[in-house]
Amino acid sequence: MNQLDDALQQADQASTRAGLKLTPKRRHLFSLLLASDTPLSAYELADRFKDSFGQAIPAMSVYRMLDFLTENNLAHKLTSENKFVSCAHSTCNHAHQVPQFLICERCHQVKEVGIKKEVFDALRESVDSAGYSLREAQLELKCLCAACAEATE
Amino acid sequence: MNQLDDALQQADQASTRAGLKLTPKRRHLFSLLLASDTPLSAYELADRFKDSFGQAIPAMSVYRMLDFLTENNLAHKLTSENKFVSCAHSTCNHAHQVPQFLICERCHQVKEVGIKKEVFDALRESVDSAGYSLREAQLELKCLCAACAEATE
DNA sequence: AAGATAAATGATATGATATATCATTAATTA
DNA sequence: TAATTAATGATATATCATATCATTTATCTT
């Protein structure tokens, strides 16, 4: 079984456990995100959905399904790009951490890594010392991936 | 002289030194950002521009002026909000640091603090260890400000 | 199983954000 | 002062996102 099917199967199981309704369409949308090596916009997803599923789907529905996926940590929205990616932890049992996205400026691939505890602590400390309380953090960092860094030299 | 005028004057001087053309319209747009206690969208700025300057201005021009302001570190774009704020350091001689924005979820006020060296180092280290190289960081953190945290309790 | 209820999706319209492009005006410079 | 460049205007359109009401599908209750 390939990686994608494996990931989907794990999402199925996780959804069942959590009592979530990963409907065929939501599942298919999720598979499109899983299969993509770059983030996709809602409209790009609608196009791919039609191409691969043979059925046109309104943008409204795509946004709703993306809401479902992001609310249930199967996907994330990259606010700096207005695009969506599958969650790197959707297929494992890792507790969901503060996500940190390394976005390659050149090839647009994204790597999601969990934020390190020391970074988080330092961040929270700096927020506290400004008199604020942290509610939610999602770090999006503009980077070059190794391949692109090499190509750019 | 009030704070706003003072800030503008410092921006004038800094622009002159740097050979930037802070035209009357750019300057006025900047003053709108300085005067606002919350981030503003380009279209909100266009409205305020008309209201306060007596002259309608096309959205395109607002975006161009915002490009100028952001490129020259007089303003920042908050990508998670699609809104713009004046730079907290536009009026001082601080070297421009990696900005960290504390955005109050409730009242939408934003506090810009410089990222602490330890946070930055830890961040860079985590990026490096993922095989990426950091190009640009702008942290946008969803928080509650002190006043709103109290009101919410 | 039948009907009631709720959840998901479709259809349509529209709002909000942003950029492309060419024309015009203003500033700079040769 | 003419030539050139930079800034802004005008217009159109692309792109991202949500509001709202209708319809279909799933789930629950009896």
TrEMBL record, chains A, B:
Zn(2+) binds at residues 104, 107, 145, 148. One of its GO terms (cellular component) is cytosol. One of its GO terms (molecular function) is zinc ion binding. Binds 1 zinc ion per subunit. GO terms for biological process: negative regulation of DNA-templated transcription; regulation of secondary metabolite biosynthetic process. InterPro entries: FUR, Fur_C, WH-like_DNA-bd_sf, WH_DNA-bd_sf. Signal peptide: none annotated. Belongs to the Fur family. This is Fe2+/Zn2+ uptake regulation protein.
